[in-house]
Design goal:
One of its GO terms (biological process) is translation. Pfam families: Ribosomal_TL5_C (PF14693). GO terms for molecular function: 5S rRNA binding; structural constituent of ribosome. The structure is a single chain. The protein is α+β, with helices and mostly antiparallel strands. It folds into 2 domains: 96 residues, Ribosomal Protein L25, Chain P; 91 residues, Beta Complex (RNA Polymerase Alpha Subunit, Chain A, domain 2), CATH 2.170.120. Strands 1-3-2-6-5-4 form a 6-stranded mixed barrel. A 4-stranded mixed beta sheet has the order 10-7-9-12, with no helix packed on it. Strands 8-13-11 form a 3-stranded antiparallel beta sheet. A hairpin with a 6-residue loop joins strand 5 and strand 6. The relative contact order is 0.13.
Length: 229
């Protein structure tokens, strides 16, 4: 079997040499994704894997168990799945106790069937400490109940559903919290206002773009999401 995972520029951990660091990671993250290698790719192979209750990983010759991924998604709000790192263990086969390799991954995309919504494929990237990754971090709005502008009948225009950062993998935020509890009519919060880890770099051509704005309901119009990335 071609051990493709050993070619990832040395970023994957070997089991014996890094057992202690893996245990520390587990204490921070409940879910450890279990995967098994597959010999080949292609639509027929992927269809067979799905019939066996497994989800192919795009770009890597791996499959993961559908039941586990569904359990992870149900325990996390869906937008946070693709901004959360997970330990990954590669086993010799389904149900095997033989651990071939372990590492840390970041899911970056879920491919679903347009009609059924069933998961077809997952896209992972390696996300070991020290690696820098571009991540779309979901924006979560809080404080709407106390927002003066909304109490006056205004409307919260959520202009940016996410912000893209270049992040050291160990500092990837699962979400960006935007507090709107002090906003009045016509008030805005801008990208530049976000307080994040100093190692994060905002990937935007204009950090003065608003994330949200309280608009009078009578206006009835919303600002479009800017495509400035």
């Amino acid at each position: 079997m071609a051990q493709w995972w050993r070619s990832a520029a040395g970023h994957l951990r070997t089991v014996a040499a890094n057992r202690s660091s893996t245990s520390v990671f587990r204490r921070r993250h409940y879910h450890t994704i279990q995967a098994i290698p597959r010999e080949s790719s292609g639509s027929r192979v992927s269809t067979r894997d799905r019939m066996q209750g497994r989800i192919p990983a795009v770009k890597h010759l791996l499959t993961v168990e559908k039941k586990q991924i569904k359990a992870v998604l149900s325990s996390l709000d869906a937008p946070f799945f693709c901004s959360t790192r997970f330990p990954l263990q590669i086993r010799a086969g389904s149900g095997s106790s033989h651990l071939l390799e372990s590492g840390t991954v970041l899911p970056i995309k879920i491919h679903r069937d347009e009609e059924s919504g069933q998961i077809l494929n997952l896209v992972f990237v390696w996300a070991e400490d020290g690696m820098k990754l571009k991540v779309d971090v979901p924006v979560v709005f809080e404080g709407e109940d106390a927002c003066p502008g909304l109490q006056k009948g205004g409307f919260l225009n959520k202009i940016r559903p996410s912000l893209k950062y270049l992040c050291p993998s160990e500092h990837i935020p699962s979400k960006i919290v935007v507090d709107v509890s002090n906003l009045d009519i016509e008030d805005r919060i801008f990208m530049r206002d976000m307080e994040v880890h100093p190692s994060l770099k905002l990937l935007s051509k204009n950090e003065n773009m608003p994330i949200c704005k309280i608009v009078p309901t009578s206006l009835g119009n919303k600002e479009p999401v800017g495509n400035d990335q």
